[in-house]
Amino acid sequence: MRPKLGRSYDPLAVEKWVLEFWEKNKVYQLVKKKTWDEREGAPIFAFLEGPPTANGFMHVGHARGRTLKDVKLRYARMKGYRVWDQAGWDTQGLPVELEVEKKLGFKTKRDIEKYGVDRFIEECKKLVDYYIGHWEKASKRLGLWLDYEHAYQTRHPRYIETVWRFIKRAHERGLLYEGRRVVPRCPRCGTALSSHEVAQGYEEVDDPSVYFKLQLIDRPNTFLVAWTTTPWTIIANEMAAVHPDESYVVIDVGDEKWIVAEKRLEAFAKDVGLKSYKVVEKLKGKELEGLRYRHPLLEEVPYHKDHDVKPYHTVYAADWVTMEEGTGIVHAAPAHGPEDFELAAKVGVEVYTPLREDGYFGDEAGVFKTMWFEKAGEKVIEVLKNKGLLVHVGKYRHEYPFCWRCGTRLFYYASRQWFIKITDDLRKQMSSHVYSMRWAPSWAAKRMGDWVENAKDWCISRERYWGTPLPVWKCTSCGHVVVVGSLEELKKLAVDPSKVPDDPHRPAIDEVELRCPKCGGVMRREPFVVDVWMDSGVAHTAALAQYNWLHLWEKLFPYKWITEAADQTRGWFYTLLTTSTVWYDEKPYREVLLQGHVLDKYGKKMSKSKGNVIWALDWMEKHGADPMRIFLLSRAPWESINFDPDEVKRYQGYLNILWNSVKFADTYMELDKWSPVSPEKAELAAEDKWILYKLHEALQTVSKAIEEDNMHHAVKAIVDFVVEQVSHRYIPLIRPRVWEEEMTPSKNAAYATLYYVLKNALAMIAPITPFLAEYLYQAFVKKYEPHSPETVHLLEWPSVPGNILDEKTYRAVEELLEASEKILAARSEKKLKRRWPLRRAAIIVKNDELRSAVEESKSVLERFANIKSVEVVSNNPDWAEAALRIETDDLVVYTDMELDKETLLEGLAREVVRRAQVLRKELDLPVDHVAEKLLVYATGDLREAVVKHMEFIKREVRVKEVEILDEAPKEAKKWRIEGNELALVLRP
Prior knowledge:
alpha/beta, 988 residues, seven-stranded mixed beta sheet, four-stranded antiparallel beta sheet, elongated, 37 strands
């Protein structure tokens, strides 16, 4: 059944009907068939879904990004593209594991081992199933049309095999290597992280700013002053580093000599409050090289006594020492700093630390044994102070990395991991790809380019469980490595092929052994899973491989358009680019849109702990999706937006104006049993030509805005067109034509134009508010054109025929409306109500080219500004001196603002009509119903106005008789107008 146009727009009722209509009629499948299957040969719009992680609920921030996707895809279908819209889910890795750990009450990785890895993996699968169910439901409720039936899932065996193929390809190119390196580590999650993961977890924090002394052995009473913000690393200190070419000074401080960099002396003295000192010697950093110092924690950490000889506890020169902060002397702990690690390898210092991978110090940490690393830092400061080695401790505000998932403070830690080498050639290639793409906003290209140009080797190994197993088997005897590219290949290589599982997840895959082709020894899989960002990072290929669709790859790759949050320049955007360049020497996508964050009403970040998160599904089920969608689209996509419920309501009000405009049209068209006719075949009035030109402009603006990812410009243009141009201007202008009793050519042209404008406005707004557009299309367009396409989402993107675009008339009406607005503003200042007609106005046209168009359009000024007589003249009228003078680009308009008795009475009659219309509305009378009688009690000028304009009142109110009373009836509704009393009763 066709939906009804109720009194006002109700988002929940509208969306309930539309969802049922879409489901019952399989509308998405119908659109897919007609726009993909039946458009053979049409250009493809290849979209690659940035897969949401199936570990939580969708909030309004997610809804914003998914709405942006939907707008782009719906628009592309309307523009004639075959749209590739495969959905996708990110299903593995730490995000999921942590949710399962919370559910099971686990605190550490050891809890997982006790519980059983196989049981833990099963819990991960259940959790993923649950959240995928939620996301699909919430996405459909939002109106996001994607191919969920063929959604890719990163846990699928064929998907995982694609990750394996990529790693094998990297190995074949000589880019995969094993190494002991200092990498960021999360002690809570018990695994290393890659640089792009670390980049997503920085927070601004206050850390201790610690200046401490290293006593030189061969220089009595002389100390190097070093600086650190991680005092716990002093426990593992093995070296001190200075810059070889910088100048260092020896200063007298009391009975001690301190050594710091000359460039840092002033800042250092100020920071530590050193007021009295004297420079006694100056020397280059390379002159300090080779000096040995006494470890500041030698007594507290006995393991340092076992190697208290060169090359340990020695000063070395290094070019990476900076003069930007500290003292120019860096304390080096090789296990906890990448540069320190490299320096240690160069000078022969063994990399070792008593800190365990779980963040607690082990037996060799002496007095710091069993302490959490941050707590140990506090103890170090206390010990240094007691030993007289603490110069100063203050606060240092800076950005520090925390785990992007669990929020634990990271530390740098030397461990054995697997890496993909990012060579200089790869960086150049990836950088070239970046700058060949279209980025929205344009500055994002530089942001991405800078990240790529400074990219580090990619640490791909993770010491976890629920993830893509690293497909590397290593010989336990000779260390030979085999990288496997598929389960089929693994079966051919396995000692016992029956042990190769159909699902390659841990722990079953760990049981598969190979025979070493070099020495015949046993080969076991390296006990790592792969960085979860690699899973989504091969989606350009794996999403197709999962469904055996690789034959489509050449048609889709590189993908036309992707979009995710702005921080994905260091996440998904980067890993897609890296895998594509390593695998294919190609860019994986052509256009990228960055998304900003959605904050709460007060501009604060939403979080579960603060209780200010707005869950998308909850909101939509209470308030509807379309008002939220158009609000979320109303700001630049890459900027943050405060989610203000009052603002959402404001946009709902704009949609209600569209609803009322359609209802107005339908009400009168139905009354007249009107059948659609093209505006091309109608006798168009000036305002008809003007609104058609406005529609043309709006369509062009919206089209350009969506194509360039400026969806906020599209929203602005749509709101302006629907609210300001159609509702506030065009409909008031044509209302007298619509109210004509007979179907005149003028009335027919007004209907033809209004219908055409509203139908195309629905098409224009369909990508933005798909539910409302569908409902109004079914209730309005399908009513008058039953053979039009089954859904609004099968309409082609509209364009206005050139033969009905009259630019001169458009310009004339624009300027007349501009003049009208200024006259109305002047009315307001003089307290002259719009319903009171002014006597006259005169127009002088400065541009002869527009004269005939202004002549044709002058009635616009009459109706919009409510002026009884408007003339186009060549010279100033004789009454011009006392008149209001208004000037636009091409017009000078004189308006007589004085009210005479006749216009005053006519205005008062209109006041009576307006009040009587209120009574009609309260009685819910149909528009065409003629009421029996209007009883009127009025005093003074108001009574005289009723008597004089009785026929006008009868016609406008649609009533058979107007009866004037000498007393106000008790049941009457009463008003006071311009000092006069009015009481009305309407008998239906």
